[in-house]
Design brief:
Rossmann fold; six-stranded parallel sheet; ADH_Fe_C; alpha/beta; 2 domains; oxidoreductase; ADH_Fe/GldA; about 400 residues; two-stranded antiparallel ribbon; Alcohol_dehydrogenase_Fe; Dehydroquinate synthase-like, alpha domain
């Protein structure tokens, strides 16, 4: 028995699809909007094109300084400004932090404050409490500028004042419309595409062996992993402007990764990445770039059949054979992304504290192999620090 819950969503992929935004907003009965983005994303080609697409709508509010990891204090301050004059829709331009902020705003405007009361709680080792959010939500329309796929999912992350990543979940805040227009990615740095693409690949890998996986998510995850293994090394090896068809393939992979973790939830890998980002300032894509092979090896003895599927998908994309962990490390090398925690600027002396904090993350609930204590996490972190992928699997 399994459950597959599909959000009501429109995903458009292809050159020129930014032109569909006015029609999609009209279909949502939206006349006024709040524009949400980061300084980089709103100044980018995507930001400029979005402003043009919104010319026939009232941009009632604009929040253009979204910070990495979506601090709760910032989001609640924005929501207070919107509370007495809410827009008909939220339009988000940017990556995961921008998308998560828009989702959180939608929750706060319908469910009230504080945001932390709307987030799941996890008590180690295996007690997860989900908060049911029943009120109708202001729709979110997203124009992504990264390959994370976060905009597709019904969940989001928000960082509290202690530097702990909190997670909320509500199908009604998944973006009602996502526009993947490769022509808007011409000025996105290749480094950002690569690291956020590794996040998308990690979504597919963890989804395959998630406790909430199903035959539907298996099929999606394998296809997403194959596409990432094909596109990321091509992006990393490019010497000139990236071809539109390559970007379209990468964006398709990102969308698939978002779809798959909307049902098959992430585990230890993302638990580590949440802590590295929220508490230690490591960009989420960079943390994902580093951690994947090492967590795959930790989980291998409990997930051999699923990792064999992943290995075939990665091998098809790379034209190579090997274990899933070895092939994930090969994607790292061919893409040119950071490969060790030592590359991130994290101090080796921080590893024990990182391991302790990971034990509080809800991702451990969905991990297929029990994580008994911080020492188990520390072993994974030490391999990630030194870059040790044994290949024994």
């Amino acid at each position: 028995m399994f459950r597959y819950d599909q959000a009501r969503q429109v995903l458009t992929v292809g050159a020129g699809t930014i032109a569909t935004v006015p029609g999609e907003l009209t279909a949502l009965s939206a006349r006024s909007v709040c524009l949400v983005g980061s300084p980089r994303s709103l100044a980018s080609a995507a930001g400029r094109a979005t402003r043009e697409a919104l010319q026939g709508f009232e941009v009632r509010h604009e929040f253009g300084k979204i910070a990495p990891h979506a601090p709760i204090t910032d989001t609640e301050a924005m929501a207070r400004q919107l509370r007495d004059d809410p827009p008909d829709a939220l339009v988000a331009v940017g990556g995961g932090s921008v998308s998560d902020t828009a989702k959180a705003l939608s929750i706060l405007l319908s469910e009230g404050f504080p945001l932390e009361a709307k987030c799941s709680t996890f008590t180690p080792p295996d007690v997860l409490r989900h908060v049911q959010l029943d009120q109708p939500k202001i729709p979110v329309v997203t124009i992504p500028t990264t390959l994370s796929g976060a905009e597709v999912t019904p969940g989001g992350g928000a960082t509290d004042a202690r530097g702990i990543k909190r997670v909320f979940w509500d199908q009604k805040v998944a973006s009602r419309v996502v526009v993947y227009d490769p022509e808007l990615f011409t000025d996105v740095p290749a480094e950002l595409l690569l690291t956020t693409g590794m996040n998308g690949l990690a979504h597919c890998a963890e989804a395959l062996y998630s406790k909430s996986a199903s035959p539907f998510t298996d099929a999606l995850a394998a296809e997403g992993a194959r596409r990432f293994a094909t596109t990321l090394p091509s992006i990393g090896g490019a010497t000139g402007p990236l071809p539109v068809d390559l970007l379209e393939d990468a964006l398709t992979a990102a969308a698939i990764g978002g779809l798959v973790i909307s049902n098959a939830r992430v585990g230890l890998h993302h638990a580590v990445c949440h802590v590295l980002g929220a508490a230690y300032g490591v960009p989420h894509g960079v943390a994902n770039s580093v951690m994947l092979p090492y967590v795959l090896e930790y989980n291998h003895d409990h997930t051999e059949a699923k990792q064999a599927i992943l290995a075939r998908a990665l091998g098809d994309g790379l034209g190579e054979t090997g274990s899933a962990a070895v092939l994930a490390a090969l994607v790292q090398r061919r893409s040119g992304v950071p490969r060790t925690l030592a590359d991130t600027g994290l101090a080796e002396s921080d590893l024990p504290r990182v391991a302790e904090e990971v034990m509080q993350d809800r991702g451990l609930f969905f991990n297929p192999k029990r994580v008994p204590d911080a020492d188990a996490v520390l072993g994974v972190l030490r391999h990630a620090w030194s870059g040790t992928v044994t290949g024994a699997a």
